[in-house]
Design the sequence.
């Protein structure tokens, strides 16, 4: 018999094919755990910060053996698994910490795509819900800008997870 719980994806690590997940519903203390494995059928392009997931584990006390088995509330982008012979990966992702301007709650950061995409990619970005509206502007084959407005004035740094795909 296995145990299931809900969690929120906080970041995806491509080289290890694992996620950092914030568990919910397993106690009074927030639990974040890195290195959570992902079941094969799950679309890696949907593993962005803020996506809600279901995890399974042998029992409630063995969270280190948890696996992500499904996603809910995640975007459903089209995924291109073909590099079209260009050698450019069809998906690039990352995260960045931005510092909010004191008193304004505004931050902006430029993301460089390395290597550049052969055509303009679709870009997704997410941050913690309390951080305010997030916009993506100036999307080109070489990069884009991520802009946060109306963030809480008490936050110093906010993590933004992003993903670009052709």
Sequence:
């Amino acid at each position: 018999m296995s145990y299931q719980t809900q969690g929120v994806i906080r970041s995806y690590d491509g080289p290890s094919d694992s996620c950092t997940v914030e568990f919910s519903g397993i106690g009074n203390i927030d639990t974040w755990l890195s290195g959570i494995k992902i079941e094969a059928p799950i679309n890696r392009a949907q593993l962005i910060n803020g996506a809600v997931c279901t995890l399974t584990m042998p029992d409630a006390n063995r969270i280190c053996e948890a696996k992500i088995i499904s996603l809910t509330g995640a975007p459903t982008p089209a995924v291109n698994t073909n590099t079209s012979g260009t050698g450019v990966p069809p998906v690039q992702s990352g995260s960045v910490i931005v510092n909010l301007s004191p008193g304004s709650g505004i931050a902006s950061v430029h993301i460089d795509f390395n290597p550049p995409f052969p055509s303009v990619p679709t870009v997704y970005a997410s941050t913690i819900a309390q951080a305010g509206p997030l916009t993506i502007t100036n999307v080109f084959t070489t990069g884009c800008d991520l802009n946060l407005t109306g963030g809480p004035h008490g936050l110093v740094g906010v993590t933004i997870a992003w993903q670009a795909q052709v």
